[in-house]
Amino acid sequence: MSADLLGLFFYHLEDMSKTEKKTTEIQKKRIGIHLSTAGGTWTAVQRAADCGANCFQIFSSSPRQWKAAPVKPEDAQKMRSLRAEHGIVPLTIHASYLINLCSQSDTVRKNATDAFRGEVERALALGAEYLVLHPGSYKGLTRDQGLQYAAECIERAIDGLPWQDADFKILLENTAGAEFSLGGKFDQVGELYQHLKKCAPVAVCLDTCHVHVAGYDIVSESGYEETMKLIGDTIGFDMVKVWHCNDAKAACGSKLDRHEHIGEGTIGGAAFRRLLRDPRWAHCAFIAETPVDDPSDVLRNVSALRTLSAG
Fold first, then answer.
1. Angstrom distance (rounded) from CA 19 to CA 21
2. What total of structural domains would you count in the chain?
3. Could you say which of 25, 34, 57, 185 has the lowest number of CB atoms within 10 Å?
4. 261 a catalytic residue
5. Catalytic pick from 121, 129, 207, 247?
6. Which of the four pLDDT bands, split at 50, 70 and 90, describes residue 18?
7. Distance (Å, rounded) from C-alpha 257 to C-alpha 270?
8. Does residue 223 form part of some domain?
9. How far apart, in Å, are the Cα atoms of 193 and each of 49, 110, 115?
10. Residue in 30, 34, 83, 94 annotated catalytic
11. What is the mean predicted confidence (pLDDT) over 190-215?
12. Which of 109, 187, 95, 206 has its CA nearest to residue 150?
């Protein structure tokens, strides 16, 4: 073989190697979506595999009811076995929307703490890596009182549970910035994390729609960098474990939490491409909570995230 042909051969070999490496990196990126559990919590695993997701999020019970049945051991075993079979990690559970751990009402906080304890119990039983929580509204209280109540209730809710033996974290989620909503600012999320890090398994989930409508710019290139620096300064990149990837129906700063399909809202595809390809978030799972107006919307949004992550 001539020197020119040999050089061409190795050039193509190197090019193929780079392509394979890029394909592997794309496949390893954890991309998923919130899925239905109709028929049992474990049925979400096959739904994830069918839409090309390698991670997913569910509710472990109705998000709008206080009472929930414990996890059946056989369901938990099916969940664990199917996830192992399909290589699906992490499993993220979203806590009930009714939970308000920083309410001014003693009764509401008591009910919320009991409900959150049930969420943790079910998450541990199912082998979930993450449990996402909206801390709640501190209306009628000061911001500091709200932070203190939320921290105390979370600590009380997990007391005596075997979370130390599990690969498990409670993820504190930022909110859309509505008045009195704890977590509307990055510094509030960071402060709550600091309150809890020594006594609870906590980390952070950030939602793109919430970031955007709370008034942080992630659309322009310069705004994105400024927002990322702020996250790094107030929370820390390593503490963010999940990004909820949702486009927004409303404008930046509107404080209206209305999700849109990926690339079709006021955030746009370019911003998601930037986020998905940012090496500072390589350790994160990216999970859509986009509208499901048609069954095909699940595959549509997972595919959009996969495509944007590839370039």
1. 5
2. 1
3. 25
4. no
5. 207
6. very low
7. 20
8. yes
9. 33, 21, 20
10. 94
11. 96
12. 109
At 26-47, the pLDDT tens digits run: 458 999 999 999 999 999 999 9
Annotation says 244 is catalytic: yes
Is 283 noted as a catalytic residue in this protein?
Answer: no
Considering the candidates 64, 165, 179, 294, report the single residue annotated as catalytic: 64
Q: Residue 20 catalytic?
A: no
Q: Which residues contact 189 (CB under 8 A, 6 or more apart)?
A: 172, 173, 174, 183, 204, 234, 235
259 in catalytic set? yes
List the alpha helices (DSSP H) in 197-240: 208-213, 221-234
Query: What is the domain-level CATH number for residue 180?
Result: 3.20.20.150
Three-state SS at 39: coil
- The model's confidence at residue 256, banded by pLDDT at 50, 70 and 90, is very high
64 as an active site residue: the answer is yes
Torsion angle in degrees (nearest 10) through CA of 79, 85, 88, 92: 10
On whether residue 260 sits in a domain, the answer given is yes
Handedness of CA 219, 222, 225, 229 (dihedral sign): negative
* Annotated active-site residue in 134, 212, 261, 306: 134
- What mean pLDDT is predicted for residues 118-124? 98
Q: Which of 119, 121, 289, 306 is catalytic?
A: 289
Residue 13 lies in a domain: no
159 has a pLDDT exceeding 80: yes
**Distance between CA atoms of 174 and 183, rounded to whole angstroms?**
5
Q: 3-class DSSP state for residue 111?
A: helix
Domain extent, residue 250, equals: 30-310
Torsion of CA 141, 147, 152, 158, to 10 degrees: 130
Q: Is residue 18 part of a domain?
A: no
Burial 61-79 (b: 16+ CB within 10 A, else e): beeeeeebeebeeebbebb
3-state secondary structure of 270: helix
